Amino acid sequence: MSKITIIGAGSVGSAIANNMVTMGVATEILLIDVNREKAFGEALDIYQGVAFCSPAIVRSGDYPAAEGSDIVIITSGIARRPGQTRLELTQTNVNILKDIAPQIVKYAPNAIYIIVSNPVDVLTYLFHKISGVPENHIIGSGTVLDTARLQSKLAKRLRISPKNVHAHVYGEHGDSSFVPWSLATIANNHIDHYKESAPNSEKINWNRDYEEIEEFVRTSGAQVIKAKGATFYAVAIAVCHICKCIFSGAGTALTVSTLMHGEYGVDDVCLSTLAIVDRDGVRGKIVNKLTDDEVAKLQKSAAKLKSVISQLDID
User: pTM of the predicted model, to two decimals?
Assistant: First the structure.
């Protein structure tokens, strides 16, 4: 038996719940939202398709119903509007999380918490400061989606499965994110040497296009928002993947947002580097050797987030 509570029955929360049913992630899914009627409708709509999926209960409820949850996913917040950065959302969504945290932790103190609301790094940091939940049980979705965007883009360029692309996005889930290219490998080759060793190399479109690829990763979310008003399908799949990694217990390397304790000279802020995720939440970070330039980029990303946090009312 596995129970997951999702707080927020908007586009992201509902897409997560629906994907969990189709992917067989949990046996019980609870939706909580200030709009109780919408949460009820979303839960009922999803549950009525369960006959075609793995057995699961999908229902709505209030905070006491979250008791016994293995994972709690927080998606509540105001959505990003076209042309708006994630960081512009900050104080409003900080206030929402400050209201939610004590109510949910009261009934699910032992759950692993996944923060999805934006700006995710700031809100993950806030949750550390106000929730009382053990550090290893707090996970920000971070750049898991950014990394998926990167891997899918590179896979298309290099004509190979994304599963053979080992490249990741570090830093803020936002404009100061970056790719540590020194660590990027394709099927055991560094990315810059893969083309010369691959079959059909003349069809591979790669000329060390670092800046172009990073710009795509940083702006693709905004492109989706401009085109359709919101992003929710891909992030829902990413969050379900995090949950599957938790339940598998095998230990999976993910670029989740975690609290830094001096790694790479970064302290007292949440951002994404590679960490091992398993049944205990965050087992620990993988402190890969970065170049001096990459360390500087990570520190710059941390400084940007700290600057935002310093201007907020988080007490």
Answer: 0.95
